[in-house]
TrEMBL record:
Transmembrane segments: none annotated. This is 2-dehydropantoate 2-reductase N-terminal domain-containing protein. Gene3D superfamilies: NAD(P)-binding Rossmann-like Domain. Residues 3-131 form the Ketopantoate reductase N-terminal domain. SUPFAM superfamilies: NAD(P)-binding Rossmann-fold domains. The lineage of its organism: Bacteria, Bacillati, Actinomycetota, Actinomycetes, Micrococcales.
C-alpha cells in the first residue's frame, strides 16, 4: 500500500516506521519550507510494543521521504491524519480538494461531532481510528513508543466499508491487534474528558510525575471525569464501560489502580515520561482539553463546579 502520513509528528512517524517495515511505501507531507528544517532522517529512540509488554527498544537513524506538495491526482492509497484535535479543521480544509481516491484515516482525538468535523471529505472514504502511541521530539530524536493495540471505530456506519476492512488488514498485517469500538463518537468524547481530567491534575501538580505519585490527586482526576460525563451525554453521546466505572466505582479504588499503572515499569508510563521529558505536552497542549470541555458545558448548560473551580489552572 502507498501511504501518506499527514505531518511528521510523533504518532505519524512511529506508525510510518512500523508500516514501512511491514513492506509498505510511506511518505510524509510537511508544510512548505519544513523539509529543510527536518532533514532526510529521523533518529528513533522508541519502544515497539507489538511483541513485548514493556516494548522492544529501537534505536536507529531512519531515512524518511518528505514532500511539501500534494495534488488531487496523487496515487496514494491511504492518508493518515493524526493531529491535535484543534488542528483537525485545518487539516480537513487542506485535504478536501486533495483527497483524490485515497482512504483517509482520522487517527486522533475529536471533541466536535466527528461526522461534522470531516463533512468536507467524501464520507465513504473516511475511516476512524485511534493510536496507542506517544512521546515527543528532542531535536531530531523521537523518544516514545507504541503499543500493540490500535482502535478502529464506527461512526454512522463507517466500519462496514471495504476501506475500513483494508485499514484493518493493513494494521493486523503489520503486527498490530485491533480493538473495535461500535460507538466511536461516544468513545472519542469520553477519551477527551478523560484527558481533560488528567491534564487538570497535571497542571495543578506541576508535572506528570507529581500527579501519578499522588493518590489524592488521582482521585480528584476521577471526580473531575465523573463530573464531565453529563457533558458527553448532553452532546448526544452515551456513557458505557468507562463512564460507568468512573461513575460507580469509588474514586479511591480507581485512583489506586491508576497510581499502580502509571508508576509501574510498563510501556504507557515510559511513553508519558518521554512526552514530559521532551516537553511535547506543553501548557497549551494540556490546557486545551479542559478549556474545550468547559466551553461546551457552559454552552449546553451543564453544571461542572469542580472543573470551573480549576479554571485558573488552564484559562
Amino acid at each position: 500500500m502507498k501511504i501518506l502520513m499527514f505531518g511528521r509528528g510523533v504518532i505519524t512517524t512511529q506508525y510510518g516506521w512500523a508500516l514501512e517495515r511491514a513492506g509498505h511505501d510511506v511518505d510524509f507531507y510537511v508544510r512548505p519550507g519544513r523539509i529543510a528544517d527536518f532533514g532526510p532522517t529521523v533518529d528513533l529512540d522508541i519502544r515497539d510494543g507489538r511483541n513485548s509488554r514493556k516494548g522492544k527498544p529501537v534505536q536507529e537513524t531512519w531515512p524518511v521521504t518528505l514532500r511539501e506538495d500534494l495534488e488531487a491526482g496523487h496515487d496514494y492509497d491511504l492518508i493518515i491524519v493524526s493531529v491535535n484535535h484543534d488542528q483537525l479543521d485545518s487539516a480537513v480544509d487542506f485535504l478536501h480538494t486533495r483527497v483524490g481516491r485515497a482512504t483517509v484515516l482520522i487517527f486522533n482525538n475529536v471533541w466536535v461531532d466527528p461526522a461534522a468535523a470531516v463533512a468536507r471529505l467524501p464520507r465513504e472514504q473516511v475511516v476512524w481510528g485511534f493510536p496507542g502511541s506517544g512521546g515527543g521530539y528532542s531535536g531530531n530524536t523521537l523518544r516514545g513508543g507504541f503499543a500493540k493495540s490500535v482502535w478502529l471505530g464506527d461512526v454512522d456506519g463507517s466500519s462496514g466499508t471495504d476501506r475500513h476492512r483494508a485499514v484493518r488488514e493493513l494494521f493486523t498485517g503489520a503486527g498490530f491487534s485491533i480493538s473495535d469500538v461500535a460507538d466511536f463518537r461516544s468513545w472519542l468524547w469520553f477519551h477527551v474528558i478523560l484527558d481533560a481530567g488528567i491534564m487538570v491534575g497535571w497542571l495543578r501538580m506541576g508535572s506528570f510525575d507529581a500527579l501519578v505519585r499522588s493518590r489524592p490527586a488521582l482521585q480528584e482526576v476521577v471526580r473531575l471525569v465523573r463530573e464531565m460525563i453529563p457533558v458527553l451525554k448532553a452532546k448526544g453521546g452515551t456513557s458505557k464501560l468507562g463512564g460507568a466505572a468512573a461513575t460507580y466505582i469509588p474514586a479511591g479504588l480507581i485512583g489506586l489502580a491508576m497510581h499502580k499503572l502509571l508508576t509501574g515499569d510498563n510501556l504507557y508510563t515510559f511513553i508519558m515520561d518521554q512526552a514530559q521529558a521532551t516537553g511535547h505536552i506543553d501548557y497549551e497542549a494540556q490546557a486545551i482539553y479542559p478549556r474545550d470541555v468547559l466551553a461546551d458545558a457552559r454552552r449546553l448548560g451543564v453544571s461542572v463546579p469542580r472543573l470551573e473551580a480549576n479554571e485558573p489552572a488552564f484559562r
